[in-house]
Amino acid sequence: MSDNSIPPPENARENARENSREKSGDFSPEMRLHAPATQRNRLPIAQALAAWLPPEVQAGGRVLEVASGTGEHALYFAASFPGMTWQPSDPEPVHRASIAAYRADHLEAGGRDNLAPPLDLDATREDWLGATSPPDGPVDAPFDAVVCCNMIHIAPWAAAEGLVAGAARVLKPGGGLFLYGPFKRGGAHTAPSNEAFDASLRAQNPAWGVRDLEAVAELAARAGFAAPQVAELPANNLAVWFEKQ
Ligand SMILES: C[S@@+](CC[C@H](N)C(=O)[O-])C[C@H]1O[C@@H](n2cnc3c(N)ncnc32)[C@H](O)[C@@H]1O
């Protein structure tokens, strides 16, 4: 499924690097990376989130997004849930530059100041609370939800382990870990397109690959989460909600 990748052209990466060095606080169009899939999947993801986020969280809660990528989801979700504060993050400097540029657009367009500057957060780090976004300082836990779209299959399994363990540390009791992406169920792919996507991921990196929902649920159970609630979304993707007990 090509739907799940972010393919920033190399020159965009270079431009973003160049610009983030030279223009702190000023954002050029080249910094804004674009992943077309986000335009297609953002509404179904927002609908799945709306079904699971309690009304009081939608009215005033705080969400940490891990692996925000281009920042297009963060921008859309911050606008879709104006009562919540959305904290994006990504370990890649070019992605954080893109997120920051979209955030500047959001503020300039008169959007509510509910989209925080991106944090430098790698899910495999033990110390999520040490992740910082100068000059705004460290992560301000606890959160009502942790959201992660399209990351655990495009990273080694250690990233899934770190994500679940980190989410358990930063979530309030009753908060939820939300995942979106392709999953195997009962050890089997749910569609031929997912099987082909899995093969292409493994060809790029043998440590990557579409994960078994049951294996992720086992990690989550060990970290103190309830059994997953699952919604089937378009293009053979799942939205999954693990509530912290
Ligand atoms: C395919 S992109 C998905 C981006 C976005 N969530 C989306 O759905 O469009 C995968 C993202 O995972 C991030 N990533 C990879 N390894 C990570 C890790 N260990 N911790 C956090 N993010 C990671 C990458 O930097 C990239 O932004």
Please name the defining characteristics of this protein:
17% strand, binds S-adenosylmethionine, two-stranded parallel sheet, globular, 245 residues, 8 strands, disordered N terminus, Rossmann fold, alpha/beta, single chain, 6-stranded mixed β-sheet
Quaternary structure of the protein? single chain
What value does the Rg take, in angstroms? 17 Å
Q: Name the strands of the widest sheet in spatial order.
A: 2-1-3-4-8-7
Shape annotation = globular
Query: Remind me, CATH topology?
Result: Rossmann fold
- Please indicate the count of domains: 1
Beta-strand portion reads 15-25%
Helix content: 40-55%
Overall CATH architecture: 3-Layer(aba) Sandwich
Describe the structure.
The chain is an alpha/beta fold and 245 residues long. The protein has a single domain (36-243), classed as Rossmann fold (3-Layer(aba) Sandwich). The chain has 8 helices and 8 strands, in the order αααβαβαβαββαβαββ. Helix 6 links the parallel strand 3 and strand 4. Helix 1 (10-22) packs across helix 5 and helix 2 runs parallel beside helix 4 (72-80). The two termini are 33 Å apart. Bound molecules: S-adenosylmethionine. S-adenosylmethionine (SAM) binds at residues 4-6, 35, 38, 66-69, 73, 90-92, 95, 122-124, 149-151, 154-155, 159.
